[in-house]
From TrEMBL:
The keyword Isomerase applies. One of its GO terms (molecular function) is peptidyl-prolyl cis-trans isomerase activity. Keywords: Isomerase, Rotamase, Signal. It comes from the Bacteria. Residues 198-296 form the PpiC domain. This is Parvulin-like PPIase.
Length: 447
């Protein structure tokens, strides 16, 4: 499975853990600040265990979490990384996975205590949907993939069980008591209208809570996360499994916001200077450390040219079997020939004469194209082609623009959508407080 496909898999199923790194401390004073309890700096919760031996790692209110459970859940994040993970880093991954499994167990137990049960048939249906989205209709293929990386269908189903149970508990116990007034929503709509044409940002965030005592360790952990993200880690997976913000459940996605909604002058300045795809942090903010990813940027209630719907023809030249000495002359002939094509009506016949093939793609949003091609295509007139791209190994192609429907001015989110967003934010804040209470009341034994 490719890295992109694995990232998609993680975003759908939220089944990975993440790596934490202990802080290396040289000065005694720093050590005392970072480790006020005087514990050994090389303390390790998990040892090197045979994954075939079901050795208990923790017992949470009587429920056993085994080393195998940890290993199988950690395997998913390892598979999603685009680089090898060292044995030391793998142990840190497992430590965080154990924390995640403890929280998941507390969530399931809290639901069961309140007589909320999730039928196995519903869990199986959710598992089948994940399989269909990532492996077509072949559910067995996902099972084979999971086992091939050291995980299992049972591990994923346990995660699905936890998410369904927690969501149902929140909807029953918190949602009925969350109130958002019509005035609040109307005020938000008015602010959006007043800001028409100004920039808004789609942000991903990871927030790590810290106290003055834990700040050095949390900052070090945050820096390790940033380094792993820069090396190809999945932002969605890391946010869902480690962020302590209310957006963790949706992979850290804050959605489209204006800078004042961040309610932090430092973040407003930083985000305002970011470019799409840029990662920043960790930044110290009140309460902890913040890591941000700018997913996209647009103007409030203004049509985005990238939402234009295009009709394109791909004209491709294949070099399979062509002797190396003939490749360059053939490429030059192809490039000269496509410039002579007389619009889309001449594409098929002209391409055939050049030894090329044509594939028609209708109803393609400009933003769905690779970023390097988006502006090139949007600058074309009908019948014009992009500069060539590709290679002798993969083939060389151009795109010809054959139709374009420009987007209408955006009307913005409707009343019900905005009310739903505000309600969800408040539910998630209550959920965080409730989970903290569950942790405080839990009986947990480590082995």
């Amino acid at each position: 499975m490719s890295a992109n496909r694995i990232s998609k898999f993680l975003s759908l199923a939220a089944v990975a853990g993440l790596a934490l790194s202990p802080i290396s401390v040289s000065a005694q004073a720093t050590a005392e600040t970072a480790n006020p309890l005087g514990l050994p700096t090389d303390l390790s919760i998990l040892g090197n265990s045979d994954p075939n031996v079901r050795k208990a790692t923790a017992v949470v209110n009587g429920f056993v979490i085994t080393g195998t459970d940890v290993d199988q859940r950690a395997a998913l994040l390892v598979a999603a990384n685009e680089r090898e993970i060292s044995p030391e880093e793998l142990e840190r991954v497992k430590m965080q996975v154990l924390r995640n499994l403890i929280d998941e167990t507390l969530q399931i137990q809290a639901a069961e205590t309140q007589e909320i049960t999730i039928p196995q048939a519903e869990i199986d249906q959710s598992y089948a949907r994940v399989a269909a989205q990532n492996f077509g209709q072949d559910e067995s293929a996902m099972g084979e993939y999971l086992r091939s990386i050291g995980s299992s269908p049972q591990s994923l189903k346990r995660q699905i069980h936890g998410e369904l149970a927690w969501s149902r508990l929140l909807r029953r116990n918190f949602a009925p008591f969350v109130n958002v007034s019509a005035d609040e929503v109307n005020d938000l709509i008015q602010r959006l209208e007043a800001n028409r044409g100004t920039d808004e940002y789609r942000l991903g965030e990871i927030f790590l809570q810290a106290t003055p005592e834990t700040a050095p360790q949390v900052q070090g952990n945050a820096q390790q996360i940033v380094e792993q993200l820069r090396q190809g880690g999945s932002f969605v997976a890391y946010a869902r499994q480690f962020s302590q913000a209310s957006t963790a459940a949706v992979g850290g996605d804050l959605g489209w916001i204006a800078l004042p909604q961040l309610k932090n002058p430092q973040l407003e300045t930083v985000v305002g200077e970011m470019s799409p795809g840029q990662l920043v942090g960790p930044l110290e903010i009140p309460g902890g450390y913040w890591i941000g990813l700018l997913i996209d940027k647009r103007q409030v209630l203004t049509a985005d040219p990238r939402d234009a719907v295009l009709s394109l023809k791909q004209i491709a030249l294949d070099f399979t079997g062509v002797p190396e000495a003939e490749r360059t002359p053939r490429l030059e002939s192809f490039l000269a020939g496509v410039q002579q094509l007389r619009g889309c009506g001449d594409a098929e016949a002209g391409a055939s004469a050049l030894g090329a093939t044509v594939v028609t793609n209708d109803e393609i949003a400009a933003r769905a194209l690779p970023e390097q091609l988006q502006q090139l295509v949007l600058n074309l007139q009908l019948g014009q082609v992009t500069p060539p791209f590709g290679s002798f190994e993969e083939g060389v192609r151009v795109l010809m623009l054959c139709g374009r429907d420009d987007p209408q001015a955006a009307s913005g989110p409707d009343f019900d959508t905005l009310m739903g967003q505000l309600e969800e934010e408040r539910i998630q804040r209550r959920a965080q407080r409730y989970l903290r209470d569950l942790r405080n009341d839990a009986y947990i034994e480590y082995n």
